Structures are given as C-alpha cells and as structure tokens.
Amino acid sequence: MDANRLPRTIRLLQRAEGYLELDLPGRAISELDSIADAGPFEPAVALLRGEALKCQARYDEALIPLKLAATTIPAPLNRRAWRSLAECYRQTGHDELAEVAELVLNSENVASDPVHVTVHFSVVPLDAAALTQLLGGRSLGRLDETTQGDSAE
C-alpha cells in the first residue's frame, strides 16, 4: 500500500463507519468502493462492507466479507464480525452455522476469564451438506465412507 494513500483510506473507513451509524448502508458501500488498495485495512473494509450488506438485508452477500473479517481480525477485536456473521447465518436459515459462530463468540468470553471456566457441550446433528459448508467446502473424504458403511449395516 502506498504510504500517501494511508490517510485517505483511514478517512474513507471513518466515513463508511459514520454512514453505517446513520443507517445509510448504500453510502457506506460507496465509500468502501472508492478505496483502491486497502492494504492492511482489508479486514476493516470487509467488516464494514459485510455490515452494510447486512443492513440492506443482503444476508447471503454479507457472509463472504464477514467470514473474512471474523477470521482475519485478531480476537477479541473480531467479536463484532462473529456477531454479525451469526445474525446473517440465522437470517439465511443456517441455524447450525449461526450456533457455531455464537460458540466462537462465547468461547472468547471464556478465554478472557480463565479462572472461571464453564464448558458447555452441545451435540448438533448436521447433514452432510451443512457439515461440508461448515468445513469450508472441503470434502468429507473418509468420513463419508465410514458413515455410509455404518448406515448400510
């Protein structure tokens, strides 16, 4: 990233954030679109773009930048991204994935207070399609063969 563009990028991010606070997601997206090279601010751009798309009820589109923000912004600063990601998963009918995002969000609360650790365990049945999506599209490989063999007996 060109050092001369740094102040401009920061101003555009601040304006986009302001437009979101004013509930003007279209204007926020316009500001974000005018950033030519976000460089190290790419996770912040992704977060604001995802939240602007969420405000416009474009939940499926918001998932992509929110996933990027949640996985690239270091914890605990990524809590906002995980929260928005969980909301978008719920709105698109992916309740299992929303619960996983909320587990990540809640696990960060536990990590900040290691003296009082409470472990919650829940078994959530997932079909193969939801599990594949949760794994980021990676093949289930051996797990598919094992599951199919067990069901045939």
Please name the fourth-level CATH homologous superfamily of the largest domain: Tetratricopeptide repeat domain
Q: How far from one another are the termini? A: 59 Å
Please name the CATH architecture of the largest domain.
Alpha Horseshoe
Mean pLDDT: 82
Number of helices: 8
Can you give a write-up of this model?
- With 153 residues, this protein is mainly alpha-helical.
- The protein has two domains: 3-114, Alpha Horseshoe (Serine Threonine Protein Phosphatase 5, Tetratricopeptide repeat); 123-153, no CATH class.
- The protein is 67% helix and 0% strand.
- It has eight helices and no strands.
- It has helices at 6-21, 25-33, 42-55, 59-72, 79-91, 95-112, 128-134, 142-152.
- Helix 3 (42-55) packs parallel to helix 5 and helix 4 (59-72) runs antiparallel to helix 5 (79-91).
- The chain is elongated and about 50 Å long.
- The model is unreliable at 113-117 and 142-153 (pLDDT under 50).
Topology of helices and strands:
Blueprint: H1 6-21, H2 25-33, H3 42-55, H4 59-72, H5 79-91, H6 95-112, H7 128-134, H8 142-152
Helix pairs in contact: 1-2, 1-3, 2-3, 3-4, 3-5, 4-5, 5-6
Attribute tags:
Serine Threonine Protein Phosphatase 5, Tetratricopeptide repeat; mainly alpha; 153 residues
Brief summary of the model shown:
By secondary structure, the protein is mainly alpha-helical. It is built from eight helices and no strands.
